[in-house]
Amino acid sequence: MTSSTPPTVLLTGASGVVGNALLAELPSFCEVIALIHRCACPAAAQQVCGDLTAPRLGLDRATYTDLARRVDVVVHCAAVTDFTQGPEATHALNEAGTRAVVDFAADAGAVLHHVSTAFVARHELTRSRMGRDVGEAGARPEDYLDSKRAGEEVVRASGVPGVIVRPSIVIGDSRTGQIAAFQGLHNILLMLLRGLMPLVPLPATSLIDFVPQDVVARAIAALIAADRRDGEVWVTAGREALHTEQVLQVVSGVCTELGLSTLIPRIVGTDMVDRLIRPVFLAGGLPKRALRRFDDMLAMTALFADAPTFPTSLGELPGDPPPLTREELEAALRQTLLHLARVKKLGDAPPVTRPLAAGVPA
User: Fold this and answer.
1) What's the whole-model pTM score?
2) CA dist., res. 204 & res. 246, Å (int)
3) Cα 272 to Cα 288: distance, rounded to the nearest angstrom
């Protein structure tokens, strides 16, 4: 790559949340090739079908060699983010798949931008590691976090020029709320919109650190444009992260706006849930499916319990998004809630009038 030649970027996970947002950002100054697996990605002009768990990325030798010759930068977004997939499937992509991407970057002489998560810093937060009963939960955040830590170690040990990018929870586009797929936090927000969470097992002041997907995409684009080749970059709300009470206030405001019944959940400590609510009021009194949903919610919210402030790297590079303000975070959360309500046909949600990118579901 020369200074006058636009870089060619191989993007994994192009149909996912961060990958899809990058497809709206990178083509303005990069040539982008999407490595797809099962599903085509309509937003990508160039696509190669492969498999991160197979030798040579699942490509024949000639295709692999040609791709390695062309690619200057690899952005690795592909990952298992479903906390219910179990350790084997999660590590197969998040660790072994990262090793395959690292090998390709080495063969290509390319810089690697590896998308991890800010929550790798939180070793103690899952319920099982805090010594708490996980009940009927199918969600195991510890499997995901272990696999992402292992993926980071693969990158660090490889010797390949690489940047580890650590976004916090990624929500929808800050302007439209649109997102390629609803993930863990969206499920909690949906339960709140539907009035299905009479309690929230978090301290009122626990930080809920999230960032809009377009902010993550612009941060990664700035790293590529600046030819950043090493280090760790935190894409988080940092000191401005909303806490539990503020998130609930935004949800309540959107419920009122949409004409939904406003149920303000009671904020309770995890000790009360474990000592009283679950064994006395829930055990034996709920269908197994409902109890599992409750325990999955406990597993998710444990990630935020008494959360420390994440560092943030926003604003450090030319073209990088500035640090987020609390007002911007509240506005972005509102858009995510409105989009979620629209897709799920809740209340009087207005239609989305500003498309994010081709291929993003309305």
Assistant:
1) 0.88
2) 9
3) 21
